[in-house]
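testing teh design pipeline on a random one, pls ignore if ur not involved
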């Protein structure tokens, strides 16, 4: 069976992404009976009636897909860029196609470029919508030229990137854009197997009345009320499902967005989830959380082989700072604590920036923070552990330490990269932090807290001799094949069971 395509809209601010998404939603809602009650769950689903003859450019038949049947499309309507980077950070990827929106009155702008880079990095196919063509100062030729400069080779301009001219304001071209989306995703592999139920969290919030509300898009399987559900950071049992137009549902089909209630903690946006029976879900959650833990936090290892935790200490006054320091240095955390900075006073934006730049956790005792610092910390996901009560702080620190000492997932830290890559092959050296690491194994490449690629060991050596496997604490040389360049400081995670 095939699932409908999932689309993300990307581009520079003010180029008309929201207006386009609103227009499409208003004119094509899958379920009109719902009386237009819409809720912000981060995505919606439409049904389109493809108009006219198929616009197959190569004149071929349409591969058996009856074009006159209404077809569904799911649009992600959280800001595209954010959704993409959150998903990448968790190693998930949900969009089947991206639409790069460029306003004809403004041309290519810095965020157009950023959006394109994000799209290319995630290897998502894309098409271009040149928008705002109703405006007097719209300059379509200049916009196309700008795109060319950016390396976007449009159809008819020496390339094969499909594009369409639209006005989200008048609606001109929007139906044709929808047809183009169907055409562009027709050849993609959108097959599903109903065995595993999985998808991605796209929004997540706490409602004071209803509890934790999570907007999700289902990628595979059938999601049902009563199933267990889990991500790396949260789990629960599904108590209720609502569609994107606010109707209650007992189950939803692949590619559909939904609002679900049932998580007992707020899952992170961008995380993958699995649902189903208790055991399968628990197994998924264990692997997902090991993967994230192993890649979280301190990348460094002390000479004793311990993880190093960088900290910035903050307190309201000198005496408190002293107590905090004593606590930190005495606590048996199972890792080496390195104090990057310590000072008295409110937590400021500068402290947060420092923490991010030095990969430090902020530990605060009787600390206050200003709003700007709190905002920055939350958007940048800086780690802050603080309390006015010393034993609470102690408990929180121990909990945190447990999380960042990855004991369970096999991992190699890259210490050297040799020579130039030959195609996808390169030679790297590193230390096995947790082994064994085996020849011919597949791995994931993690940088900081992000999954950036995948690869496989083609040849494994220890002390310049071929080795079948290399144990914990031992250095290894690897000939690898990978889809992204590997750099010093990257972690290679081996997620398959030994
Ligand atoms: P976003 O930041 O990319 O989501 O852009 P918006 O959709 O918020 O649009 C920014 C501004 O451009 C708003 O004032 C819209 O009304 C206007 N706008 C968007 N699309 C069009 C269009 O096709 N034609 C015209 N004339 N204005 C548009």
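output:
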């Amino acid at each position: 069976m095939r699932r409908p395509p999932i689309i993300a809209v990307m581009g520079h601010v003010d180029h008309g992404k929201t207006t386009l998404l609103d227009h499409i939603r208003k004119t094509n809602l899958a379920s009109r009976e719902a009386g237009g009650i819409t809720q912000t769950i981060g995505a919606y689903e439409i049904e389109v009636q493809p108009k006219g003859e198929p616009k197959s450019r190569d004149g071929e038949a349409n591969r058996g897909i009856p074009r006159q049947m209404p077809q569904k499309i799911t649009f992600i309507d959280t800001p595209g860029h954010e959704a993409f980077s959150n998903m990448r950070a968790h190693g998930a990827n949900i969009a089947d196609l991206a639409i790069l929106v460029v306003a004809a009155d403004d041309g290519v702008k810095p965020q157009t470029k950023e959006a394109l880079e994000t799209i290319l990095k995630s290897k998502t196919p894309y098409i271009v919508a040149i928008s705002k063509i109703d405006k007097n100062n719209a300059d379509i030729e200049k916009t196309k030229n700008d795109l060319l400069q950016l390396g976007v080779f449009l159809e008819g301009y020496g390339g094969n990137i499909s594009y369409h001219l639209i006005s989200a304001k008048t609606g001109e071209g929007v139906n044709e854009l929808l047809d183009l989306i169907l055409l562009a995703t027709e050849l993609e592999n959108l097959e599903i197997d109903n065995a595993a139920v999985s998808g991605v969290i796209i929004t997540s919030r706490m409602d004071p009345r209803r509890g934790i509300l999570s907007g999700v898009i289902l990628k595979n399987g059938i999601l049902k009320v009563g199933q267990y559900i889990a991500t790396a950071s949260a789990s629960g049992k599904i108590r209720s499902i609502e569609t994107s137009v606010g109707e209650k549902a007992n189950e939803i089909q692949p590619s559909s967005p939904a609002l679900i209630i049932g998580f007992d903690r707020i899952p992170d946006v961008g995380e993958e989830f699995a649902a189903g029976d208790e055991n399968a879900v628990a197994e998924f959650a264990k692997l997902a959380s090991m993967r994230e833990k192993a890649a979280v936090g301190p990348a460094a290892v002390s000479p004793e082989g311990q993880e190093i935790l960088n900290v910035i200490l903050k307190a309201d006054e000198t005496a408190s700072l002293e107590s905090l320091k004593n606590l930190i240095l005495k606590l048996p955390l199972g890792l080496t604590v390195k104090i990057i900075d310590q000072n008295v006073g409110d937590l400021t934006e500068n402290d947060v920036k420092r923490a991010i730049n030095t990969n430090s956790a902020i530990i605060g005792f009787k600390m206050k923070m200003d709003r700007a610092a709190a905002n920055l910390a939350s958007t940048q996901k800086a780690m802050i552990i603080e309390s006015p009560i010393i034993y609470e702080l102690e408990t929180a620190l121990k909990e945190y330490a447990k999380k960042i000492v990855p004991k369970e997932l096999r991992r190699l830290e890259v210490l050297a990269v040799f020579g130039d890559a030959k195609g996808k092959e390169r030679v790297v050296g590193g230390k096995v932090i947790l082994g064994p690491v085996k020849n011919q194994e597949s791995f994931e490449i993690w940088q900081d807290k992000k999954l950036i690629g995948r690869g496989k060991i083609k040849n494994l050596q220890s002390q310049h001799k071929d080795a079948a496997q290399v144990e914990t604490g031992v250095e290894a040389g690897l000939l690898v094949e990978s889809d992204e360049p590997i750099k010093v400081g990257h972690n290679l995670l081996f997620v398959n069971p030994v």
